[in-house]
Amino acid sequence: MKLKGRAIFDGKVEGQALVSSSPMSFYGGVNPDTGEVTERGSELAGQSVKGKVLVFPHGKGSTVGSYVLYRLAKNGVGPSAIVNAKCETIVAVGAIISEIPCVDMVDVSKIRPGARVRVDGATLEF
Amino acid sequence: MHLTKEEEAMLAGEQGHATRKAMQILVALGKIYDAERLVKVSSVQVSGVSYKNLGDAGLEFLSELAKDGKARVKTTLNPAGMSLTDWQSQGIDSGFAEKQLQVIDVYRKLGVEITCTCTPYLAGNEPSFGQHIAWGESSAVAYANSVIGARTNREGGPSALAASLTGRTPLYGLHIRENRVPTIAVDVEAQLSLPEDFSAMGYFVGREAQDRIPYFRGVRRAGLEDLKTLSAALASSGGVAMFHVEGLTPEHGLGTKNIEALTFTRKELAETDALLNDEGEPDFVSVGCPHCSLTELATLAKLLSGRQVRREFWVCCSREVKRQGDEAGYSKLIEASGAKFALDTCMVVAPVEELGYKVVSTNSAKACHYLRNAGLKVRFMPLEECVVEATRSR
Q: Which ipTM did the prediction report?
């Protein structure tokens, strides 16, 4: 399947989809040193975002979350790409400063967990 | 989004790496929020200062920008995780202090004024009505929009800094008049006699309003201290970035057609007070969230005069307000009681949970909110009672 969205930060990568159906908080929700999701109640709790195409509706929580994405990337445990239904400030700024390819305005419910996803600018193929 | 020739050049990297990165952030935000263009800002308040939140990566990011980036407009700074000069007496670990001072040096290199306060409007960063600004620090955002009538969205650290490095911000949200109209009314029936009543009301309404724009009816008078603490509370329990007070704030005439209304009576006031009080004997008392005004220093001086504090007592304020307090003779009286000025920092951003305290007395609902998140117990009480609590023997 091919989906066309909007590129927030351009890039070309391929990876396995890690999908959260609920919004994600990076500050306090993801361990910046290990990439492990620590947010209580999250369906991804205990899983690592490292190297994954991370799919979730949108970000939430403190704006410090942008720096958490940056720390993840610097520590080599960040996602390879981010796909959102609707990107907001925390994730957009985080993706740009960390240079993580980021696409939004796509129907994220179409992406199955574990699917192999190719991200190219505003286009997703899986 | 339309960019001018100069802005295109910034985005293309013709004015250096930092300007380019900043422009990328602003253009992406403009795209997300359908801004038609960027708008010039007259001042910036940068959040993201405490090393506790930034970590090494945040410090590295800022250092990277400081290689060739410079503030293009007046830019002031949020509080740090400690006093920049008296961190030792605050009990701060030297490893933390070293990193925190590095963060400050990088901001200085970026051309940011090291004001370290959440009340820039009391410390020389005073926008005027209608001006576009890009501020972080949620309480200052609510104050600037609502009380001053300047225009800002709720910026995060990097987006505020991006505005500083380019002198611009995307034109959307609260920068546009139509988006500043009230979206929820609050009928105030409770009698608000102290700033702490405004703080409790803000905490209650913030939870109900989330990111809507409250319109308060029935408030007869409100001073700077009332509005300062109301702003902070509204922005901590909810995401309120602007409010109006009928007959008082400059844009209250924008209209209240067809909006839902809440009531805030004596009952809600008492319930909120109770909600903000845990069990326990306070071992730490702190006032100044947001940072104290000169009027608050005057009150403290009067209350503390001739008395001794028996618990750690922090009076958080900016260096500018402290200086005014020195001139007026208030600081001397406050310090003679054994109370400590906590300059450049506050109980919310300093690592208070690591200083060994368990139960904090404060007159700020916002502080209660964040101290609880950090695992401490809280007691919410008026300024005068904070002094009683700090000075009474056990």
A: 0.81
